[in-house]
């Protein structure tokens, strides 16, 4: 059975992402491991010589009580969706989120991380911020990111962005395995700019190699790469878009300032970040 780490702060956006995590766990036959982290304030022990340990203990206890109160609410959501059979485990850890997330992924041998974001500004922050840089560089498993307002719907079309590198085939096969479990079609997109170095021969070779898979290869000529991807998501009814970390600098640019507002306003879909093998 696969394992999914689901970091949560029990916010509305995290609870919304939990629904996606439940449904995804069903698709890939995985158990969910809920991760809640908290940072204990640093106190100078010389000013609190007697109460030092008590302060830390009271904070830990308060966090535990909150954690204990929130878990039944999530289990109720699972029951309401007839997904109570999904195994849900828990981790309550003090310290930095990224540090603990990395350790949890390694210790639990997790296959995926699923996490929520909260709105336009946080989309931009997520893709440009230091936390995301750390997640992408240090978490070596696929990360599924869920926008705050994205309601779950059955995955029918998975978008896959590629530059037709040989390494991309490995990630495409992983995406195809996910697609098979939900009877989804994969639509692979390559935006051919005027400076493109991908040959027609390479594209034909890919089409031949994946001829027996439920994948459609689209090559769209344009120097307006970001707008072309947006159109692709909109007009091809893409339910989830996949990118690979070697393209992170490009994908970040999709979520800069005005364009991030445009794409989030018009398109609110999960993003699956894959990692080169």
Features:
10-stranded mixed β-sheet, Rossmann fold
Q: Outline of this structure?
A:
The protein is built from ten helices and ten strands. The protein has 277 residues and is an alpha/beta fold.
Task: Give a verbal description of the structure.
The protein is of the alpha/beta class. The chain is 47% helix and 22% strand. The chain folds into 2 domains: 2-146, Rossmann fold, CATH 3.40.50.620; 157-275, 3-Layer(aba) Sandwich (Rossmann fold), CATH 3.40.50.620. The longest helix has 29 residues, at 52-80. The two termini are 21 Å apart. It comes from Flavobacterium araucananum. Residues 1-147, 175-274 form the UspA domain. Pfam families: Usp.
* Largest beta-sheet details: 10 strands, mixed
**Helical amount:** 40-55%
Structural class: alpha/beta
> Do you know the CATH architecture of the largest domain?
3-Layer(aba) Sandwich
CATH class designation of the largest domain: Alpha Beta
CATH topology of the largest domain: Rossmann fold
- Secondary-structure element order, N to C: EHEHEHEHHEEHEHEHEHHE
Terminus-to-terminus distance: 21 Å
Strand line-up in the sheet with most strands: 3-2-1-4-5-10-9-6-7-8
- The residue ranges in which pLDDT falls below 50 over 5 or more consecutive positions are 119-130
Mean pLDDT: 80
User: CATH homologous superfamily of the largest domain - what is it?
Assistant: HUPs
Morphology: elongated
Q: Count all strands and give the number.
A: 10
Total number of helices:
10
Number of domains: 2
């Amino acid at each position: 059975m696969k394992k999914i780490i689901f970091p949560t702060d029990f916010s509305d956006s995290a609870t919304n992402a939990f629904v996606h995590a439940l449904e995804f766990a069903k698709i890939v036959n995985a158990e969910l491991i809920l991760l809640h982290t908290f940072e204990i304030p640093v106190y100078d022990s010389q000013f609190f010589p007697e109460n030092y340990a008590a302060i830390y203990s009271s904070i830990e206890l308060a966090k535990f009580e909150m954690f204990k109160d929130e878990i039944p609410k999530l289990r109720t959501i699972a029951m309401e969706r007839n997904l109570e059979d999904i195994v849900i485990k828990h981790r309550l850890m003090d310290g930095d989120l990224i540090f603990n997330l990395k350790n949890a992924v390694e210790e639990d041998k997790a296959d995926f991380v699923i996490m929520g974001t909260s709105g336009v500004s946080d989309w931009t922050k997520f893709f440009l911020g230091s936390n995301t840089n750390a997640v992408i560089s240090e978490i070596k498993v696929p990360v599924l990111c869920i926008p705050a307002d994205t309601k779950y719907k059955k995955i029918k079309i998975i978008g896959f962005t590629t530059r037709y590198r040989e390494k991309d085939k490995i990630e495409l096969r992983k995406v195809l395995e996910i697609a098979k479990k939900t009877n989804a079609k994969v639509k692979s997109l390559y935006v051919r700019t005027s400076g493109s170095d991908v040959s027609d021969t390479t594209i034909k070779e890919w089409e031949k190699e994946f001829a027996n898979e439920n994948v459609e290869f689209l090559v769209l000529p344009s120097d307006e790469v970001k707008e072309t991807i947006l159109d692709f998501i909109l007009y091809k009814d893409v339910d989830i878009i996949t990118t690979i970390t070697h393209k992170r600098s490009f994908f970040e640019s999709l979520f800069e300032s005005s364009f991030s507002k445009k794409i989030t306003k018009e398109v609110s879909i999960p993003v699956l970040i894959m990692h080169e093998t």
